[in-house]
From TrEMBL:
Pfam families per UniProt: CT398_CC (PF24481), Zn_ribbon_9 (PF02591)
Domain CT398-like coiled coil hairpin: 11-187
Coiled coil: 93-145
Gene3D superfamilies linked: 1.10.287.1490
Protein name, per record: Uncharacterized protein
Source species, domain of life: Bacteria
Domain C4-type zinc ribbon: 200-232
Amino acid sequence: MPDLKQLWEIQLLDGQRRALEQKLREGQISGELRTLKTDIEQGRIIFNKLKEEYNLLKKLKKMKEMDVATANEQKKSLGEKLYGGLITNPKEVNSSNKKLESLDEKVKKTEDEILSIMEQQDTLRARLEEMSAELSKKAEDYRRKHGTLLASQEKVRQLLAQIPLSRQKMLERVDNGLWQKYTELQKKVNDPLAKVEKATCMGCRVNIPFHDMRLLKQGDGLVFCSRCGRMLYWDKQG
């Protein structure tokens, strides 16, 4: 009677290895992590644009403040001349008064513009602070989940590293002729050995004829599934 138990254990081990390798490939970066990373990257792009806009407003505000300071200096200088008696010509007095009015209007308009800029800065500052907190939270979440992923991958690698030795020990207990038949079948079908449960081939889910079931239970040589061609393995204790 061919002993298929070790062969079955090898096939299970090979299946486990494939599953672990697949998990390792898929786990390079999970969909959730990829989405989170993309969110962070896009968020940083928006954050940097808003920060750039905020800095431009800051520069513009400074320029406006300098304009106000310059206009006020001009007003002060002109006022001192006008009200200090240095300008007495009626035509020059009239021109200077118009110039002062123009400077007053310019200062008022520029100060209004500065207030508007400050309001925009306040709005942007609040948005930047909110985004900074959101990005920090997402970055911490990414680091935590990525660390978990790396730990999981390391565990998978350790399991994979243990498989070859275990497989070799099992293989040493398998008959050479049986192993040759198994590897030949492996060229035609995945997992050439199918377990039998409730008179059903678990490889293709087809019922096994009574005659084949009797041969399996008697242990008279190898029995193959008439549908998928796999070797059938019946575990007496199963």
